Amino acid sequence: MSFHKLPFDIQTPEQKEQLDDVKEIKEIKEISVEKDVNNISEELILALKSELKSFSQDNQIIKNVLISTADGFEVASLFTAGYELHIRKVSALTSSLLGISSAMLKEVGKGEQNAVFMESDDSMILFNRIPAAQRMLCLMAVTSKDESIGQIFWRVRKLSDNVVEICNQHI
Predict the structure, then answer these.
(1) Considering 33, 102, 105, 165, which has the largest number of Cβ atoms within 10 A of its Cβ?
(2) Which of 157, 137, 139 is nearest to 149 (CA)?
(3) For 44-102, what is each residue's pLDDT tens digit?
(4) Non-local CB neighbours of 77 within 8 Å, separated by 6+ positions
């Protein structure tokens, strides 16, 4: 069996050099993305978990709280029994919802997104962006409908401010 030779080189030395440069750039990007996702210290995670416990003791109306990365990975959470099974899914949905709402606001020219509010028959959920120490975090808080919306927004913003302070201390 004989092979047919193409009338051109598949990869010239210049193309090979350019390809090597592209591979190097891609490797650098992959390292920085991986570093960003995994670069949350155990110390910071413990401090955030402690803050969530303290927050829940002072704000018992808020039942479930989650802090996740902008790409949907849980950092710290405090859930009532039964909700723990859904942490990964809720983390991903939280970051997706905040990303979509941010894109929507930018598209209609209404500035940066800060919070998203959802209401069901028996509960309310508030999603908040947290720009903390060179990293965007997402916060989700679930509460019953017994509390005023203004109080929920105020409490979650206060928690977000505390998270920013904690992150700034640890990074």
Answers:
(1) 102
(2) 157
(3) 999 999 999 999 888 888 889 999 998 999 999 988 887 766 888 889 999 999 888 88
(4) 52, 64, 65, 66, 67, 84, 87
Give the pair of three-digit tokens for residue 137. Answer: 């975090």
Q: What is the pTM of this model?
A: 0.73
Q: What is the DSSP letter of 2?
A: -
Query: DSSP assignment, residue 136?
Result: E
| Longest Cα separation, the chain | 80
pLDDT tens digits for range 117-149 = 999 998 899 999 998 877 889 999 999 888 888
Kind plus residue range of the DSSP H or E element containing 150: helix 149-170
